[in-house]
# Entry
Amino acid sequence: GDSVTQMEGPVTLSEEAFLTINCTYTATGYPSLFWYVQYPGEGLQLLLKATKADDKGSNKGFEATYRKETTSFHLEKGSVQVSDSAVYFCALSDSHRVGNQFYFGTGTSLTVIP
Amino acid sequence: SQTIHQWPATLVQPVGSPLSLECTVEGTSNPNLYWYRQAAGRGLQLLFYSVGIGQISSEVPQNLSASRPQDRQFILSSKKLLLSDSGFYLCAWSVLGGANIQYFGAGTRLSVL
# Structure
């Protein structure tokens, strides 16, 4: 079945460091891929998405490219800020499936220190 | 614009007591609705989803049940809570055939003591 494997955390970085959070997926169809972010005590917010191979999603300085050949959707940011401290979830969804179910990774906790 | 409301925000319940968490969506019709649980330090576990009124699909057999009495209302219930039911419960919605995005509520922190 469909699944997402996400880099284990926690990750601690200094401000302005480069961030990479790895995500790989397994899917039988042609899924859309997502990164969600969860700030402490809150629900999940969509950070970015990509709907087909070679698409690049970007938002707030974060980027991820849908790589079908490596079944990956790694999240990157060139210079992290303290305000980026949160838990990041990779997810996939196949909109052609009944219920439009999402499959989430286990989440990666990021802490950015000044 | 669409909004999702989830309440209560925090709940402390004794073992063996009943549970009712409510989620409502505004500004859209016939949404797909979802209940997730997030245990401490772990990822999201899909509990139930619904594609229409009275239609509930269960992903994981457990002590919980869900109902959808109205188009934009989704309720998570239990007759008798267990310690293992503690966690962060998230409601979400999406529109089939739309932008294929799930939108989440703010969550309910449930502590069973």
Summary: The two ends of chain B are 38 Å apart (CA to CA). Chain B is about 0% helix and 55% strand. Chain B has a mean pLDDT of 90. Chain B touches chain A at residues 6, 32, 34, 42-44, 46, 49, 51, 57, 90, 92, 94, 96-97, 100-107, 109 (CB under 8 Å).
